[in-house]
Amino acid sequence: MHRDLRLTGVGRRYGLRGPWVLRGVDLTVPPGSLVRVEGANGSGKSTLLRVLAGIDAPTEGRITGRPRTAYVPERFPAALPFTASGYLTHLGTVHGLSRPAAARAAEEWLERFGAAVYARTPMAELSKGSSQKVAVAQALLAGPDLLVLDEAWTGLDDGARAELDRAVAERTAVGAAGVFVDHDPHRLAGAADAAYRVGGGGLDPLPDHRTSPSPAGPSVVVEARGAADAEPPADALAVTTSVARTPSGTLRLTVPASHSDVLLRTLLGARPPWHVVGLGPAAPLVADAAPRAPEPEADNRR
Description:
It holds the Pfam family ABC_tran. This protein is an alpha/beta fold. The protein has two domains: 5-205, 3-Layer(aba) Sandwich (Rossmann fold), CATH 3.40.50; 219-281. Helix content is 25%, strand content 25%. It has helices at residues 45-53, 84-94, 99-112, 128-140, 158-173, 234-237, 260-269; strands spanning 5-13, 20-29, 34-38, 60-64, 69-72, 146-150, 177-181, 194-199, 202-205, 219-225, 242-245, 251-256, 275-281.
């Protein structure tokens, strides 16, 4: 994804005389950003995501810059004439992968989501949770530039939910954008760059959406050392919520738990690599809302 996805004056209604579900919606989704969408049941969240994904065309307004997009709907049609592996392989070829590459990607994503045992199972025989794992795998297997997730975590077990969190972090870390709806207010807490509420046909930004603490403590602190006076890699700063330097020169980088794997890989893969000296849970986020340059750590320890 190399340019912003933009919605300008977008409206959507069903039928020539149906009520407007969306009207006058303006939205910009930059590359590498993660956007949360909230709203009451029936407010138009799913309609907005379908428009973003290109499933529904806007009744009015225009959309520019839509990249290669993958979509996970709220309700996945599991009764399909494929096995889980066959379906993913087929979708991979539709997305431009060769058949061998699609088959390998299908195997890898089923393994990541703990569904490899169901690779040869007909889709119609899968449980809700297993079919949902296939649904999210099909959206990720070809590395989309825009990932649109409509309550994609619903029905997944805890391990698969955490894996989807990591997969979203991986895509945004390489410049893809993500837009998601989820009923859990703490989903990807501290990771989203922007949040909006759908209501009354419009779309309103939610201020300070990253300042709400999560009772689960969704962030971790990574302590790392580089060469003398070295600045951390830009890709590392892109996923952190705060950075501080201790008097000894160690950097303390706070990152949403879902993005910790990405941060660690970035630090260890830098040239020269950074030395990770500590990793642990952080206090719930209460203030820092965006990455910033390292600054001396306040001496308020007791």
